[in-house]
Design goal:
Butyryl-Coa Dehydrogenase, subunit A, domain 1, globular, 3 domains, three-stranded mixed β-sheet, 10 helices, alpha+beta
Length: about 400
C-alpha cells in the first residue's frame, strides 16, 4: 500500500492557509514516521505507546490551542487538523491528546488559580506530566448531574469519597481533575497521584481503544488541600465546557480514521483482482461504496472546517459541536464498516488498520455524549423544547 497522501476530493485544501498546511504536514509526518510503525503492536498488546509522549510535547500538540505557559497558541482549525492526523494513526492516541489538552489543561487554564496554572500547565504541555478527567461514574454517564462522588469541607481541606470509571489515562495520570458534589454545587479538584485514599485500577478485556489506558478511580476519605479546588467555576458549567472542547476535537479526529479506512479500501480494490483478472474497483457496486464514502468524508471535512472557523471567531456553540461530533462519528463508523466489507476476510486482520479503527469508533461514537444525547441537544436547539426527561 502507498503511504498516505491525504483525501481531498473537493479541493478543501485550498481553504487552508500556509500555517494550517504546515501544522497538518507536521502532524502527518509524525503519524507516518512514529505512530504507524508501532500502533499495531500497541493495540495487540493492549498498551498505550508512552514513548510518543515526549515528542507530542516537543511538537506542541498538547494543549496546542491554548495561550501562554509554553503552549503553542495555535488556532482551533490548526488544532483540529492535528486531531485529524492523530486519529488517522489511532483513536487511542488522539484520545490521549484530547484528554491532556481539552479536559485537563483547558480547565486549569480557564478556571485554575495562578499557582495551579504555573505548576501544571508547563509540565502537561511538555508531556512531563499526564492528566486525566474524572467525571463519568459507574451509574452515571449521560447524566452527570446525578453524580454521587462528594467533597466535604474539613477545616482547610476537602475530603473526597466516590468512584469514577471509564477514565482515559486514569492510572498513568500524575494529576486527576475530579468533579464532585459539594454543599455549594459541583466543583473540580486536582488530585495528585499518590494522595492517600486515592486509588486507580485499569479496565481490562476491552475490544476497543486497546492502545489507550482506561481506568477506574476510587476515593475513600481522600484528603486534598484547599488549594486543590478549581476556584474559577461552579456547577455543571465546568465539566460541560471542558467536554465541548474535547467534542470539537473528536469531530475533527474521526475524519482521520475515516480517511485511513477509505484510502486503505480504495487502494485495496485497485490491486485486488477477481473475475477475468480485473480489479474489483472496476465493479459498479464497489465504485458506489467508494463514492458514498468520499462524499461523506467531504461533507464531514466541510462541517469541521466551518466549525473551526466559527470557533476561532468565538461563535461556535455547544449545540453546533453536537452536530459536528454526532455526524462525523457516525459517518466514520459507517465508512469503517463499508471499508471492512470491501476487503472481505482480509478486513478483519490487523495487517490492515480497518478493523482497529472500526472497533475504536464504536467507542468514539458513544463517549463524550452518545449519538442519542447529541440528537436531543440538536432537537432542543431547533424546537426550544428540552426532551431529556
Amino acid at each position: 500500500m502507498q503511504s498516505f497522501r491525504g483525501v481531498d476530493y473537493l479541493l478543501i485544501d485550498s481553504q487552508l492557509d500556509s500555517q494550517e498546511h504546515l501544522v497538518r504536514q507536521t502532524a502527518r509526518e509524525f503519524v507516518e514516521g512514529a505512530v504507524i510503525p508501532v500502533i499495531r503492536d500497541a493495540y495487540r498488546e493492549g498498551r498505550f505507546p508512552t514513548q510518543l509522549i515526549p515528542e507530542l510535547g516537543r511538537l506542541g500538540f498538547l494543549g496546542a490551542n491554548l495561550e501562554g505557559y509554553g503552549c503553542a497558541g495555535m488556532s482551533n482549525v490548526e488544532y483540529g487538523l492535528i486531531m485529524q492526523e492523530l486519529e488517522r494513526g489511532d483513536s487511542g492516541l488522539r484520545s490521549f491528546v484530547s484528554v491532556q489538552g481539552a479536559l485537563v489543561m483547558y480547565p486549569i487554564w480557564k478556571y485554575g488559580s495562578d499557582d495551579q496554572k504555573n505548576r501544571w500547565l508547563p509540565a502537561l504541555h511538555k508531556g512531563e506530566a499526564v492528566g486525566c478527567f474524572g467525571l463519568t461514574e459507574p451509574d452515571f454517564g449521560s447524566n452527570p448531574a446525578a453524580m454521587r462522588t462528594t467533597a466535604a469541607r474539613d477545616g482547610a481541606d476537602w475530603v473526597l469519597n466516590g468512584e469514577k470509571t471509564w477514565i482515559t489515562n486514569g492510572s498513568s495520570a500524575d494529576v486527576s481533575l475530579v468533579w464532585a458534589r459539594t454543599d455549594s454545587g459541583i466543583r473540580g479538584f486536582l488530585v495528585e497521584k499518590g494522595t492517600r485514599g486515592y486509588a486507580t485500577s485499569d479496565i481490562h478485556g476491552k475490544m476497543s481503544m486497546r492502545a489507550s489506558v482506561t481506568s477506574s478511580l476510587s476515593f475513600a476519605d481522600c484528603r486534598v488541600p484547599g488549594a486543590a479546588l478549581l476556584p474559577g467555576v461552579s456547577g455543571l458549567k465546568g465539566p460541560l465546557s471542558c467536554l465541548s472542547q474535547a467534542r470539537y476535537g473528536i469531530g475533527w479526529g474521526v475524519i482521520g480514521a475515516a480517511m485511513d479506512c477509505y484510502e486503505t479500501a480504495r487502494q485495496y480494490t485497485m490491486l485486488r483482482k477477481q473475475f477475468d483478472d480485473r480489479p474489483i474497483a472496476s465493479h459498479q457496486l464497489v465504485q458506489e461504496k467508494l463514492a458514498d464514502m468520499i462524499t461523506e468524508i467531504t461533507k464531514a471535512q466541510l462541517l469541521a472546517l466551518h466549525a473551526g472557523r466559527l470557533k476561532d471567531q468565538g461563535k461556535l456553540e455547544p449545540a453546533h459541536i453536537s452536530m459536528l461530533k454526532r455526524n462525523n462519528a457516525a459517518i466514520a463508523l459507517d465508512i469503517a464498516r463499508a471499508s471492512r466489507d470491501l476487503l472481505g476476510a482480509n478486513g478483519v486482520t490487523d495487517e490492515y488498520p480497518i478493523m482497529r479503527h472500526l472497533c475504536n469508533l464504536e467507542t468514539v461514537k458513544t463517549y463524550e455524549g452518545t449519538d442519542h444525547i447529541h440528537a436531543l441537544v440538536i432537537g432542543e436547539r431547533v424546537t426550544g423544547i428540552a426532551a431529556y426527561r
